[in-house]
Amino acid sequence: MNTLTIKNLSKTYRNGIKAINNISMEINNGMFGLLGPNGAGKSSLMRTIVGLQQADEGEIYFNGTDIRKDSDFIKKQLGFLPQDFGVYPKVSAYDLLNHLAILKGVNDAVMRKKQIIDLLEKVNLIAHKNKEVYTFSGGMKQRFGVAQALLGNPQIIIVDEPTAGLDPEERNRFNNLLSEIGEDIIVILSTHLVEDVRNLCSKMAIIKNGSLLAYGSPSDMIKQLDHKVWIRKIERNELNDYLQNYQIISNHLIEKQLHITVLASQQPEGFSLIEPNLEHLYFHTLNQ
Ligand SMILES: Nc1ncnc2c1ncn2[C@@H]1O[C@H](COP(=O)(O)OP(=O)(O)OP(=O)(O)O)[C@@H](O)[C@H]1O
Fold it and tell me: Residues in domain ABC transporter (predicted)?
């Protein structure tokens, strides 16, 4: 079992933005969802964990080793799929993986070849191994990104907003791949898509403005909202009234009709009880 421990981590950029504000958490094998709106600090946290930038304060341990003191230790065990994964033009999938594997220290040529072929099979790109990666579709590029992140058999992989721009079928395929990988190692999935976290992650954190707002198992956290989430259809001109008088979770259109979802311990007049879900928890947490 692998353990990533983050203790009191903080990071302020030169422009004064505190992108990570005293975050502590522990992450074990399996898929961990890091959920937050744009600008919450997810990428900042990811970049700090992978050693691309230094924290101002706090500690990060991987399997007991302080990675600030021994940054090579985590680099050898880690694979990263950044948000903007660039590829060189005119290089085939196989050759690019070969090049990246050498950089990662997979020195034995026979082992390297086997690993690359195995990974291309795993991400379902073996038929495209001689194609130039820059000609791949968005989904194929992301799956290639997973293959490169898995070179060198890492114990932890970090993927930053990986399904942005993928069509539903590719998103499913990509998510299935992640979930398969997450059985044996730590996979940290940074995203603003609640649905991806709900479908894939057994543990999660919600962050906003650099701070950790919630942390734990999605189902345990959702249970706290049992018998407290209510919905009703309203007219647009009533919205302000409701916003002022109720603890709002969200308002959204269902078949063109505005619906409002609120949190209350007793049934508010005209509202019906609904089963709480991760989206309710997410919006409720962000609104608090
Ligand atoms: N290198 C930087 N220098 C200064 N400010 C930065 C830098 N990188 C990020 N920020 C700011 O830090 C805050 C957190 O940004 P970050 O990219 O970590 O958030 P995020 O949750 O990953 O957002 P997104 O989902 O939009 O990628 C934002 O206000 C952002 O503008």
Answer: 4-234
Q: Is the CB of 276 under 6 A from ligand 1?
A: no
Quote the ligand 1 centre to 14 CA distance (angstroms): 12
Give the global pTM: 0.88
Q: Which residue matches tokens 């309203």?
A: 234
Per-residue pLDDT of 98-148, as tens digits, reads 999 998 888 899 999 999 999 999 888 999 999 999 899 888 888 899 899
Token pair listed for 284: 């409720």
Task: Give which of 172, 1, 148, 165 is closest to 79, Cα–Cα.
Answer: 148
Q: SS3 of 152, please?
A: coil
In the beta sheet, which residues pair with residue 229? 263
Looking at ligand 1, which residue's alpha carbon is closest to its atom 28?
39
Ligand 1 pocket check for 142: Cβ under 6 Å: no
Nearest CA to ligand 1 atom 26: 38
What's phi and psi for 28, nearest 5 deg? Answer: -115, 180
